[in-house]
Amino acid sequence: MTVIDGISREVTALWGGGKGRSLLVVASGWGILLGARMIYPVLLPYLRTSFNLSLTVAGFLVTILWLGSALGQLPGGILADRYSERLIMTVGTITVAGALVGVLIAPTPFLLFAATAVVGLGQSLYPIARITILSDIYPDRIGSALGVTMATGDLGQTIFPPIAGVLAAAIAWQAGLGFLIPLLLLVGIVLWVVLPAQPPTEPDADSISVGDLPSIVARLRRENLLFVAFILFLYILIWQSFTGLYPTYLVDQKGLSSSAAGLLFSVFFAFGVIVKPLAGAAYDRIGMRRSLVLVLVGPVAGLTLLPIIEGFWLLGAVTALVSSMLGSGAITQSFLSDAIPDDIQGTGLGVVRTTSATLGAAGPVLFGGIADRGYFDEGYVLLAAVLVVVILLTLRLPESTTGTATGGH
């Protein structure tokens, strides 16, 4: 079978039986939400000027955004287990639209941070419901479905930040965020119309509550789940540190213009559009261990080379090399979706993602502190060293760890 035949078969399986419409709308919503989140790093130089923020405080603003995106995932998972995914994703999208209005009119840094936190909280309602609904629709192709969805997220992160940068330079930074508000409102309506309605599950003796979390964590200890969660935490720490201040780094340390920095930032996510579906398909075929190592080796070299590379085109090449780490999310989250038992899937994913993402959210503010002390370049070498640790931990996973071996579905 040729590569083209294999791709054609995957596309047919994902789109057939009326499933494609749901995948399209879920993926589109995810793309717009992630695009909104990744506009922040591009607008950070403007926000630093408008609100007189240091690199550390600017990093803390990004941390607040990521922290909000993390903290709501556990309650979002519980709600996904009990209520309609359609409702949860719609509410999250509309909340983000309203919070962005607050960001645009914020007169003080405190209100800017508060509105940004609500942006993150609104976004946090979407990810778990997205995974659980896709795992129901595609029980045998969750890796491919998540890979497509996450690639669409990268498409949003590729398209929207440069648009935001152009609007900010031509008009004002508020225009760079404001154009997303009607798009978010539209996607909220489409989610409600297209996704299947599901009756809420009545609370009963078997319902999951906060008191059940210790027993859920105990169940997650099986199948290397907590070990994989730790790997996910380290990856999130690296990824958020890199993306949070990368455009600022390119402007301050490499002498690029804001528009050129925004373009390279979009290149990072553009390659993710290709990497994530391939990584998801690789997980389906060769398992967690080998597929994860494959996508993480290149970024070690890229992050190490970044401080000594100069010039737009060479920086573009290094950015593309680092971008292969974007495939890590498709692999680890597919593994977790497969491995976590169905009866606690939403809550279990919420526990893992909330814990990993909450701890990983410290990355931007810590990285900003390193940069403020004059070690911007050394910070990226440090990220490469942490990534080496991730690879070494990945090699400890058993070779047979695959989506089909864990028995989650």
Automatic annotation (TrEMBL):
Main location: membrane
Membrane-related topology note: Multi-pass membrane protein
Region forming the signal peptide: none
Highest taxon, organism lineage: Archaea
Residue intervals passing through the bilayer: 23-43, 55-75, 87-106, 112-133, 145-171, 177-195, 225-246, 258-279, 291-309, 348-367, 379-397
One cellular-component annotation, GO: plasma membrane
The keyword Kinase is assigned to this record: no
Residue stretches making up the Major facilitator superfamily (MFS) profile domain: 22-402
Keywords, ordered alphabetically: Cell membrane, Membrane, Transmembrane, Transmembrane helix
Subcellular location: Cell membrane
InterPro entries membership: MFS, MFS_dom, MFS_Efflux_Transporters, MFS_trans_sf
PANTHER family, A to Z: CHLORAMPHENICOL EFFLUX PUMP RV0191, PURINE EFFLUX PUMP PBUE
Protein name: Nitrate/nitrite transporter
UniProt source species: Saliphagus infecundisoli
